[in-house]
Amino acid sequence: MEDDDAALLAAVCRGSERAFNVLIDRHQQAVRTFLRGLIAFEEADDIAQETFLAAWTHAGAYRGTASVRSWLFSIAWRKAKGAQRGWFRRRTRDTAYHEATSGHQPALMPNEDRLALERALGALPLDQRAAVVLCLGCGMTHAEAAETLGAPLGTVKSHVLRGREKMRAVLGEMS
Are 45 and 117 found together in one domain? Predict the structure, then answer.
């Protein structure tokens, strides 16, 4: 499929919307799953759309040194990291506003398992969380995750190992 993806991306460079739609159909769910493991669920879809928009406008930047899938994930990773700063500032400002005006925020009641997993993932530093989500949640190899994140292979392996240990500890405390 990687060769097929590269051929599709070459067609995208020539302006083929049909080829781009095929790439979106093949990879959008995986990109969204990755992003949902990193950032707020509702924000992940926006960043996924930004990822594919960037892929369309910068398709010529693909050099073929990684799979198209890894290239798309690396775009998503950079978009998520860039957006995190703005979200943090907005979240801090909005939280202060809600506390000042209402004293509390309404609680949403998602599935208990999902909430526990989100808390456990949230306890990890962003780089570690990204490695865990890519390898354990999206099924990437350590090498693919390293390429996606622009990190050394050994770093990704240690992020996954340490992240898994921290998540087990956090999930164990919640039991």
Answer: no
Mention every residue, 6+ apart, whose C-beta is less than 8 A from residue 142: 135, 153, 156, 157, 160
Q: Which residues 6+ apart lie within 8 Å of 40 measured at CB?
A: 87
- Whole-prediction pTM: 0.64
Residue whose tokens read 């020539």: 14
2 and 73 in one domain? yes
pLDDT (tens digit, 9 = 90+) per residue, 47-74?
999 999 999 999 988 988 889 999 999 9
Q: What tokens does 152 get? A: 């050394």
130: domain range? 110-175
Mean pLDDT of 134-161: 93
Q: Name the 3-class secondary structure at 106.
A: coil
Instruction: Kindly report the backbone phi and psi dihedral angles of residue 152, in degrees, each rounded to the nearest multiple of 5, phi listed first.
Output: -65, 150
